[in-house]
Write a structure and sequence with these properties.
398 residues, seven-stranded mixed sheet
């Protein structure tokens, strides 16, 4: 018997987090595709999606307890709190940006050991062309890059574009973007559209063409690093020292610096040292997209805080900018999640084939594992009821 698979979006409880894993438009598509959709009451409020919008789209809203009991697949943006994870049952599927690399892996391994199926979207490499519609890291990085340029412009006490007025001419702001991945390229493009004079920098020489195609200059470097899975690898101590020395000498010519360098699961590289900050002009702005509990790209940056150095440089710790654009970021993320569900759900059940390159990438599991099929809750319940009703058969001799 084929039953309806129930997917549910949880409320994000992280400090300052306003995104939601599903938006009403995506709910409509999922319901049309045969899914039953549950939304934890109030989950969309931070992204300006009230419960009645979800109900109109075909979902049901309910309490956390009811959602956890009824859902076959739980959808989150960030990893849920430990007390929620502790309540997940064997066979339930958890999907999200779950911090599955580095120090975050241990907590997920505990879930897997309990029989929870974990699909972590932050494990998806950008090099898989068929997975682009599921690439949540890229969709959220694009939001972050756009927002970084806007935040920098707001904090900068002068014009971004050249302005010619009766009172005189104002030169354009000089912007340096460190890192030409998805976030960096979006920051470059947005700063250019705001009228700034933009320069991009990356340790991958292959990024030069992408930077210049946006009308920006490319800052040459002697530190060249190949990418792995679409991401730059961590630099050696020698490479990092050379990079810092290069950047320190050149960064003082810029009004605004946006840093976007991250290494999945590891401490972000320090690109802007305290000495470099001390040499920048008063009124300069540095936006650190790498700022997190692990550290940041800028010495002294604090996540979600804005500080001003003794010499008047504003340093903005901006490690979670997508939540400042919760409506747009949630819409993009929900499309990523829906694309993944479409790829892994077959005949009303989550069917995970480890030979599939997408499944193999995102599925957090022990090294040796058999293909998994997660049936809808009601099918499992019917099977258990049938087993309970069947007469007990004892082995011969008992």
């Amino acid at each position: 018997m084929t039953a309806t698979l129930t997917v549910a979006a949880l409320t994000e409880r992280g400090l300052g987090e306003r995104r939601v894993a599903l938006v009403p438009d995506t709910v409509t598509r999922l319901v049309a595709g045969g899914f039953a959709v549950l939304i934890e009451a109030g989950a969309g409020a931070g992204a300006f999606h009230p419960d009645d919008e979800y109900v109109a789209a075909g979902a049901k809203t309910d309490t956390l307890e009811s959602v956890l009991d009824a859902a076959d697949v739980l959808l989150a943006v960030r990893r849920p709190e430990p007390e929620i994870l502790a309540r997940l049952r064997p066979g339930q599927v958890l999907v999200g940006l779950l911090d599955a690399r580095g120090t975050g892996r241990a907590g997920l391994d505990e879930l897997v050991a309990r029989g929870v199926v974990v699909l972590s979207l932050d494990l998806l490499p950008r090099t898989l062309s068929r997975a682009q519609t599921m690439d949540a890291l890229s969709s959220q990085a694009s939001v972050a890059g756009y927002r970084a340029a806007i935040v920098a412009a707001e904090a900068f006490a002068r014009y971004f574009p050249m302005m010619i007025t009766a009172a005189g001419t104002a030169r354009p702001a000089k912007v340096l973007v460190l890192g030409a991945g998805v976030a960096g390229l979006q920051a470059i493009g947005t700063a250019r559209r705001l009228g700034a004079q933009v320069t991009g920098y990356d340790v991958r020489e292959a990024a030069r063409e992408e930077v210049t195609s946006l009308g920006a200059s490319f800052l040459a470097t002697t530190v060249n690093v190949a990418s792995e899975g679409g991401y730059a690898r961590a630099l050696t101590p020698e490479e990092q020292a050379a990079q810092q020395a290069e950047l320190s000498a050149k960064m003082r010519a810029f009004d605004i610096v946006i840093t976007t360098a991250q290494v999945p699961g590891a401490r972000p590289p320090v690109l802007v040292t305290a000495e470099t900050l001390a040499g920048m002009a008063p009124g300069s702005v540095v936006v650190d997209l790498g700022a997190s509990s692990l550290g940041g790209n800028v010495d002294g940056s604090v996540p979600d805080e804005r500080i001003v150095t003794a010499n008047g440089v504003t340093v903005i710790g901006a490690g979670n900018l997508p939540t400042q654009m919760a409506t747009g970021a949630s819409a993009a993320y929900a499309r990523n999640v829906a694309a993944l569900l479409t790829a892994v759900v077959k005949d009303g059940a989550v069917d995970l084939d480890p030979t599939d390159e997408v499944v193999d990438a995102v599925w957090v599991r022990p090294a040796e594992v058999a293909p998994a099929v997660v049936a809808p809750t009601e099918v499992v319940a019917e099977a258990e009821a049938a087993a309970d009703a069947a007469p007990e058969t004892l082995p011969e001799g008992e």
